[in-house]
Amino acid sequence: MIYHISINDFAIIENTEIDFDSGLSVITGETGSGKSIVVTAISLALGSRADSSYVRFGKDKATVELAGELDGTEYVLCREVSAQGRNVCRVNGRLVTLAELSGICSRLADIHGQYDNQSLLDPENHINVLDRSSSEISVIKSTYMKSYANYRKARGELNTLIAHEAENRRKLDFYRFEINEIDNASLKTGEDTDLEDRINLLKNSEKIFGHAEKAYAAVAGERGAYETLGDASSELEYIESFTSGLASASKEINDIYYRLEDVISDLRRILENSTYSPHDLDIAIERLSLIDDLKKKYGPSIDEINAYRDRIAAELTEIENSVMEGVIVRILANMREAWTTVLLKDGKALTEARLKAAEELQTRIITEMRDLNFRDAMLTAAVSPLPSPSESGLDSVEFLVSTNKGEPVKPLTKTASGGEISRIMLSIKKITAEYDLIPTLIFDEIDQGISGKTAAVVGRKLREISKTHQVICITHLPQIAAYADTAYRIYKDSDESSTYTHVDKLDRDSRIEELARLLGGETVTEAARENARELIEKARQPVSE
Known about the structure:
Radius of gyration: 48 Å
Number of strands: 15
Number of helices: 16
Helix content: 40-55%
Shape: elongated
Strand content: 15-25%
CATH class of the domain at 1-108 and 439-545: Alpha Beta
Largest sheet: 6 strands, antiparallel
Structural class: alpha/beta
CATH topology of the domain at 1-108 and 439-545: Rossmann fold
Distance between the termini: 21 Å
């Protein structure tokens, strides 16, 4: 339960503290006095979303500290929200994450705000209400969820495998394309360098031919260097018969003569091969361009392109040799087994338990609704099959209601008003409180849309719930406030610069004054006070357990 809350610089609340007791605590006050702000502050301490707008104007931060007990352990929960939006959570002085705080608080208190009744309008929430009403469902549902988890695991493995196989097929096609592209190119090591030389040669073939031709004529032409050197060599050979002094010169000229033969041979080859061909140039350029494109895709050199080809060829072989079919069959078999377990055993048992619990729950809700002035109310907890299993089972659950005699049951959204929704929710909460382990229930204006006798019945129901739970209720109706074990009044005042909100715990006399105010307005008459006393006295009458 919640013992204490301290609120500082939160909205229009500068500083206030509230000590809560067990039983039914009721907070009243004028419209706009800050009643719902207190609930918002409690909600913040219990882990709701923080907002910098909570910070009182002109202040650096808002602080809410809540003390309570859960499972025999005392907790002090603290939330700080700065004007810049920084959010700090502490449990017993220790910094914690919001998730850690919420994990504790979800078991400490359950808050029903002014608009939380709308959750009843969402059929997806109805199955949880039904399931929590039966301990048998809890046991069977636990078994079902294990089976469902096995099914989900098998299905997940299968989906992963199928996706992997699809990826492998994509790789197969892609790798085959790449290998064919590289193979069709028939690359040879050093081919790119040779092509670059050939292209350069072809591009300059005319210049090369002209100059080579002139060089050839100068060397091998008529009276060229070759012929001249031959004549010189012959003359020196003749002189050598008369003197040995020119033997060295004759030898050098002969060496030059024979080396010049090699030069002439090279020049002749160049002349023979230096025929300009635009077609040959285009072919060489196209070939080199192909090699450059392959380099961009597969590697910076021909050797690396071929190495890449060998790697993907090996991976291609590995993929082609994989035994995916057998694995898929095994996974499919596991999935079918899990599916069978879910559908035919655990799921069916869960459905049967829900059908049984639905009959019991709807009977109890109808009883509570009629006690809340729904004299001709009818309610059905409809259990319907789902097209496929879900984590919750094979069923959907929806509450169908009729609040008027002779009218067929319909979805809540098409039948109930705001006030009726509040009372239906209270009927359900009265029942669920019997097995709900959450010690504190907080109701923010559950009296929305009701008045008079119905309000008194709601007050009595809250009192009944407070026998097993701590109940904190925000209300503007005296018929409900009269049932309080502990009463509080929230009010605000102001000075020249600011507005302040205060919360007072009421004694008997001030409680009578507050009820009289709720009954008669700001001008409290003795008749209103007497009426207030009567309401309190009537509320004190024993409540059946």
